[in-house]
Specification:
Keywords: Membrane, Transmembrane, Transmembrane helix. With 364 residues, the chain is α+β, with helices and mostly antiparallel strands. Helix content is 14%, strand content 31%. It contains six helices and 21 strands. The strands form four sheets. The chain has a 15-stranded antiparallel β-sheet that branches. A two-stranded antiparallel sheet has the order 1-11. A two-stranded antiparallel ribbon has the order 12-21. The radius of gyration is 19 Å and the shape is globular. 49% of the residues are buried.
């Protein structure tokens, strides 16, 4: 769902008291202009959820202990479907969080830096926060054969931990520094760090190469979700799932906003080779032929809770115990199909990950 969808949703029902409509749209424009749109032209909103462009300092300090993955070998080039294969870790002032998103082609994780502000959590504009230079950064670890390095324009060859890599440095779209580092972490398997910073010197190209060299595998873990589904329209396949986030780069843009889960289905299946960016791209577009299911706290939606099922233009809502479950299809599904999906959703304990279901068992 793109930024213009927020306008349609916000006119169907007023937003909650946490943000008025002007604040939502203004913060969205700022976020679009400076964060993801700075890498393209972005939308942050899914189902009316928005990460406000307000200072939220990155967590961690330089003297924090290094996070070591449970398995210290290389990340495997392939894995079982929808399985996380690396964990969070720190190198110097940079920290990779554990991945929150896994698709048929890649895994996604946020990157944070000491002293830089990452705007990935909605906060009340009245709350005072400590603001530093801004950073928008993330790591994409592609499965073998999924990433096409020849599509990285203007790249210079580098070496990362003895393996071939490619590097692009520029200052476009209002950032003091925009860096992309792609490297081959395993046979025919590439990972990419994208980092846009208001600090021209940090993170430096060397900082990113050092961070990349720290990538290690962890014990495989299948993504889990707090819902089970009994119905998906014929022909649709699960393409991407996010834990505690929305799917794709929308989830990275609001990674600490407290969402529960997101699932993306497509018909036909999305490509698993020849990629240069995650599904939907840096703009957070709906991939062709897709629909999404969002599971979020009611407070994260600009829709008012109502009994039963309710639909707007291209989406339908269901509310259960303070949780908003939404199917969003942008008109690709009928209201009848979206209601049938929601009727077949069984919600578990959103507060306890240990009770969640492997996504491979949660979908028909």
């Amino acid at each position: 769902m793109r930024m213009q969808d927020l306008v349609e949703l916000a006119t169907s029902e007023p937003p909650p008291l946490r943000h008025d409509a002007d604040q939502i749209l203004a913060s969205g424009r700022r976020f679009r202009r400076r964060r993801r749109a700075a890498m393209g032209a972005a939308a942050v909103v899914v189902l009316g959820v928005i990460a406000a462009a307000v200072a939220v300092p990155a967590l961690g300090r330089q003297d924090d202990p290094v996070q070591v993955p449970a398995v210290s070998g290389p990340v495997p080039a392939t894995a079982e479907p929808f399985t996380f294969t690396f964990g969070g870790y720190r190198v110097g002032k940079l920290r990779v969080e554990k991945p929150v998103d896994v698709s048929t082609a890649y895994q996604l994780a946020s990157v944070y830096a000491d002293g830089l502000t990452t705007n990935d959590k909605a906060v009340d504009p009245k709350d005072k926060t400590v603001q530093g230079p801004d950073l928008y950064a993330y790591l994409t670890v592609y499965r073998a054969g999924a990433y096409d390095p020849s599509k990285l324009a203007g790249a210079q060859q580098v070496t990362v931990d003895g393996r071939p890599g490619l590097e692009v440095n520029d200052q476009e779209h209002g950032w003091a520094a925009r860096r992309t580092l792609a490297w081959q972490y395993n046979t025919d398997a590439w990972a990419v760090i994208n980092a846009s910073s208001d600090d021209a010197a940090f993170p430096s190209a060397k900082d990113l190469r050092d961070l990349a060299a720290g990538l290690r595998g962890s014990a495989p873990s299948v993504a889990k979700v707090p819902v089970t589904l009994s119905y998906v329209p014929a022909g649709y396949q699960l393409a991407e799932v996010a834990m505690h986030a929305m799917p794709g780069l929308n989830g990275i843009a609001a990674a600490r906003d407290g969402d529960y889960a997101g699932l993306l289905f497509s018909n036909p299946g999305l490509p698993t080779t020849g990629l240069s960016e995650p599904f939907g791209g840096v703009e957070g577009d709906d991939p062709p032929g897709s629909f999404q299911i969002f599971v979020v706290p009611a407070a994260n939606s600009n829709q008012h809770a109502s009994p039963g099922l309710s639909c707007g233009t291209g989406f339908c809502n269901r509310w259960v115990d303070g949780v908003n479950i939404q199917v969003s299809s942008g008109g690709r599904l009928t209201d009848t199909e979206m209601k049938q999906i929601l009727d077949g959703v069984r919600l578990g304990n959103v507060k306890d990950d240990s009770t969640w279901t492997d996504v491979t068992a949660a979908t028909p």
